[in-house]
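<instruction>
Derive structure tokens from the sequence
<data>
Labelled lines for chain and fold
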Amino acid sequence: MLHRYSLLITFVIFASTSVFSQQIWEWQSPKPQGNSLIGVEWIDANICVAVGLSGMVVRTTDAGSTWAIQKSNTTIELRDVTFTSNLVGYAVGLGGKIIGTMDGGITWSQRASGVTRSLLGIDFSDASTGTIVGVGGTILRTTDGGTTWTPQTNGTAENLSDVSMLDNNIGTAVALSGAIFRTTNGGVSWAIQNSGTPAGLNCVHQIDASTVIAGGVAGTILRTTDGGQTWPIMPSGIPNNIQDLDFSDALHGTAVSIGSIILYTSDGGMTWAKQDIGFNENLWGVSMLDANTCIAVGVGGRMFGTTNGGNSWALQSKGVWNTLWAISCPDNTTCTAVGSYGIIFRTTDGGITWVSQISPTEVNLWGVSFTDVNNGIAVGDGGTVLRTTNGGGLWSRINSPTTNTLYAVSFSDASTGTAVGGSYTQESILRTTDGGLTWAEQSSGTLETPYGVYFFDSNLGFIVAVGGKIKRTTDGGTTWTNGSAPTTTYLDDVFFSDANTGTAVGEGGAIIRTTDGGISWVAQSSGTSKTLESVVFTDASNGTAVGANGTIIHTTDGGATWVNQVSNTTNFLHAISHGSTTVATAVGDYGSVLRTSNGTSTSVRELHDLSIDQKSPILSLAYPNPTNSS
């Protein structure tokens, strides 16, 4: 199963009338969850709420020591959140989404915005009066505490990224183009101001009637002390795009950026000191409780907190954030996942806890296969082969006859296994008959790189490759014959539930199926155009495939129909493994581990299209591109 894409992913979330009937896939790692978080807001000294991708809302009641997922009643991406009191709050997102809470963020319900354009920023000046900004010059205002929202006009179609209201009259909004807009009459009119820079602006904070701070592309920090007549550039000392900033008072502020750089000011934004949290990932949102206490959130659900003004930052979320490329679960309680930088991640208690094992390599590991809870093989870059006989207590390097990348491995029994991979012009097929101690090269007679392999027994096996190529062997790989595939797309994975019945998946939602042992194949309709990277079946009828945008599709009729399931994530899912007929675990980007114990549920997600690159600068360079939802 693999993996030939840039990190830019175009996502589609599918529609149903029973959006939340059964959310069967639960986060096991990271904890509390692994969706990127974009907005965050302190309510009081103990309670803080953050929002982000897939309609995610998380909440802490102990100042960040622990966090819990809250039911938001949406899977639409949420971009900003604000609270008007300890109980009342609102979050906004793509497609005109507004949700509100009346109990401090525990439960949320949909609110009517009257618009379909994406909403990117929200701020309230008091319990009754609030302003929302978004794509295409969208400005909405409420004077009844968020019950109704009225459009305002600013005479522009600019994509407005953030807004800050000092009181019911004075406020400032900024745009992705670098434009700045100011109102002194509660939004009845907005006057454009000259920022003096073409740099896109992502965030703004109104300190007082005269002083405003704005941040944006390439480390841009602007500060006005004359109500916006002039906007001098303040030295930030970084080239990174500033994604969000917040002030606890007139002097103390924090800004966050891509690359996990945090800036802190104690003089009202005139000078900024760089703080390093020790992780090279993007931060999207920040909220200050006071001059010392702050929470920053970002990619993969990471949350960081400080209680000493940023002298030190503690990671509040738990887990690993390596990409997990493959997983093998020999039973319901034991799974091993492998991934980027040599990560080996294992559970022996059904996913209650996951532990990183000592890996003898730092190269990417693309495939893993366990024949029981103790014996396993992992393969990866440079022909890497690792072997364990004690459940990963010790992993040993095994001599490999190739230096080509190995993308997948399959064992049919404790002794017999096959690993496949290659380069752009050369395939690699390795075979072992002694449990992985030694490996010999085989050839299928093709130059196409195989990405997936499955052996039903020691003789009958299949490989899938670029260009829709499928190869079949009945003699353990000594000879291979071509199968007839009704596709020319990349195929990433293949699985057989019996000697006759098999399914392969790949790019563009491709699914093909055979019922004659791989001699002939027919195309099936997956219901998605998203790349599918892994597929498993528990019998000839029941199967599950996973892929881009957190896609999980399930069939109960051998693939005649495939139904989308709620995965609760938009992270790319690269692999899935069944521990039994109902228990399955899927893994993917940012250390995502999801588990279900009810593999036949068919609930699905809301309809929404967006383009997301979780490593791209938020807004300023289209993370995600809000105009796609306008």
User: Anything to note?
Assistant: The longest strand covers residues 405-411. The chain has a mean pLDDT of 92.
